[in-house]
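Q: How would the structure tokens look for this protein?
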Amino acid sequence: MNLLKRFALEHLTNQLSYGEACLIGGGQEKSRNHDVHYPFRAASHFKYLCTLNEPNCALLITKTEKETSVYLFKMPFDKKESLWTLGKLDLKIAEQDPLIKKALPFNTLKDYINDIAPKFKIFSNLDINPKIKTTPLNDLLGSCRMLKHDQELQNIQKAVNLSAYGHKNIMKITDPGLNEAELALAFMKEAAKHGVAEQAYPPIIAGGQRACILHYTENNQVLKSGELVLVDAGVEYNGYASDITRTFPVNGTFSPEQKQLYEVVLAVQMHAIEYCVAGQTWSTLNKMAKSLMLDKLLEIGFLSGSRSQHEKESSVSKVFYHGLGHWLGLDVHDPCPYRDEQKNEVPFQPGMVLTIEPGIYVSDTSGFDQKWHHIGIRIEDDILITESGPKVLSAHVPKTIEEIEALCQK
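A: Here is the predicted structure in token form.
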């Protein structure tokens, strides 16, 4: 029985000093309505260390000069409950994990923490006793999760691969008259064949003007010929996220204006990916991306006038109004630090995984020429930083105009 991930435990304990402890809660069931609960997913910090996916669990890791000890607190097995749900893992079975010193009933956690509190500085995401001062857990675990282990990279790549099937399937089946909800359902078809039902986040299936709403998740409108549809969706595999966005024409063919703006976004994305190398920083990459986008928008006549005036007015930010990307891992926006304790930017290092996702969004209230209205475009890929440069984990999802139109017109 192996519940704990050895690489994660080693990484965490290396960050702890003698006399420090880490208390990590796995979370509780959340009510959806009346007596219906959302499907349970353990908190990501807990999931980083442990494969157990049960509510009301916690890990306590203590480090002294003599040893590092791991205690698992969980609900005991209940025979009656097991007739209604999958049931809880027996404490004795949990103790068979060689990395767990003791598995204890969850209701003993408070007393246990009260006993050790005078001896340890405790990092925690649980409020066990308001009289006990604890240090927030996020910075410590966020730093641990920054560099991905091979096992984590395998899970991320599997999630990406299943998402790739979904994106390509949606491109093949999209036609005018389909509802966004049909595409949302079709996205998970291949993942379901592999026994995977989880998505890393609520999918965005946004046709036409709705693509200009960054977090549109209603996914319930009919798709029309002449519109683009933006699909931002990612499968979760073993708790690890993928995050891919593609934008394509509902009728299979880009209009001239759609094609021009799409080529701008694609050029910016490919340029940014090229510079995803060790030592790079997010701020530099963002500046490069917005500078190139400004050049391209002037080139196609979307913007007119002087470059310096548009820089002064931040014109690009009026149509590209989100960041260039983010960390990726157990969370779609992994809570890894962007700055260190000295407030300096964290440079890219081999083993980091991130997304690159420039976009252009021209709503009918944007003030730009009407011919560009209702065009919302985002292209997003998942990138691994390596010693030899960027590795695009989602490279097998079509994104050039030629590839997309060929697949959409099948």
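The chain has two domains: 6-144, 150-408.

Residues 233 and 385 are 22 Å apart (CA to CA).

Upvote if useful.
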